Amino acid sequence: VPRNPKNSGELALIDHIRTRASTIPSRHLRLGIGDDCAILAPPTGHELLVTTDFSLENRHFRRSAHPPEAIGHRALARGLSDLAAMGATPLACFLSLALPGSIARHPTWLNRFLDGFLALAAQHHFPLAGGDTSESPRISPKNDGFVLADITALGSAPAHRALRRSTARPGDFLYVTGALGGAAAELSALLKRASKPGAPHLASEMRPSTESATGNHPHLFPQPRLAVGQTLLRRRLATACIDLSDGLSTDLNHLCTASNVSAELDVDRLPAHSLTAALTNAAQIAAILHGGEDYELLFTAAPTTTIPRSIAGVPITRIGVILKHVPRRPRLLIVSGDTRFELLPQGWEHLK
Ligand code: ADP
Ligand code: MG
Questions:
Q1: Contact at 8 Å (CB) between 287 and 181?
Q2: pTM of the entire structure?
Q3: Of the residues 6, 10, 14, which should be mutated to test ligand 1's pocket, given the most ligand atoms within 8 Å of the CB?
Q4: Are the beta carbons of 127 and 94 closer than 8 angstroms?
Q5: Contacts (Cβ under 8 Å, ≥6 apart) of 5
Q6: What is the largest CA-CA distance in the chain?
Q7: pLDDT tens digits for range 309-346
Q8: Could you tell me if 78 and 150 are in contact, meaning their C-beta atoms sit under 8 angstroms apart?
Q9: Are 73 and 112 in contact (CB under 8 A)?
Q10: 23 Cβ neighbours under 8 A, 6+ residues apart
Q11: Distance of CA 248 to CAs 3, 6, 306, 318, 324, Å?
Q12: For ligand 1, is residue 120 a contact (CB within 6 Å)?
């Protein structure tokens, strides 16, 4: 009986991940994968910002519908977007994986997952500094378990300067980066294609390898807005900020509740993603207002602050205004011409 409780397959996998991860250089990582802990040296005068995100098969993705590169990319993008929302600079990430035995033994799927994960990590100088690897429990003779990927993202920001969601003030203007609804539009097209009998298997057909291939895929390859968040912090432009993971209505409600303010959105100013043009009018406005996972930034700024039309190549649109909250009155309003409606935060459900 081998004395090492870890099976050799797992050790080989970790060694493989370590080799692949070693290609991302970092000034702040003193010791990466291989010891009991990683060692980080954050920049002097900075605070640490930490966030974790689960990516669970059949909740956040489907192996039958999502290319493995997109699953890896999206797993990391969620954490990067949280760092972006607070204006942080990425320091290092960690990846805890539970893999079905079939994947652990023939790591083609894992390699493609890592292609997506590490390409996004490299783009943001975000070294993979550690994690954990385990085999998923078998569920039945035919099903050897699910893929679970939990990431931890560490970033840093100058002390006391990180952007928060709780600091918006009445009178501030409300801004959003990029365009909205693209992720919801792409997801609905993707699920339609995946459910068509005899349709080519998208997950295996798509092998994005260059940045251009990941270009206009707001669902499969969202681009977290790190440079925008860092600029907002550095130039003291924003009073508050949150990233759009659950959808505009839900995340705006989070920001307003945390800041104890109300907000009024101008529906005619909302920047629609080009992919939403394929939807019916009702589905388009739903995608823009409630579609999740666009990973854009929603921020507020004092009315006296000049906000550039674009930051780091990303367009910025003014979409509304922050108001004083009156108890028992609606927190979110939407105006269209002369008409005002209450906007309800419409919960975003993860993929079932
Ligand atoms: P320990 O048993 O001491 O926790 P492990 O054998 O689990 O260590 O891991 C060995 C090294 O490999 C550690 O540095 C750990 O952070 C790293 N590691 C394990 N799994 C992963 C993974 N999925 N991604 C990145 N690094 C990993
Ligand atoms: Mg140990």
A1: yes
A2: 0.93
A3: 14
A4: no
A5: none
A6: 77
A7: 999 999 999 999 999 999 999 999 999 989 999 999 88
A8: no
A9: no
A10: 118, 122
A11: 53, 45, 23, 14, 20
A12: no
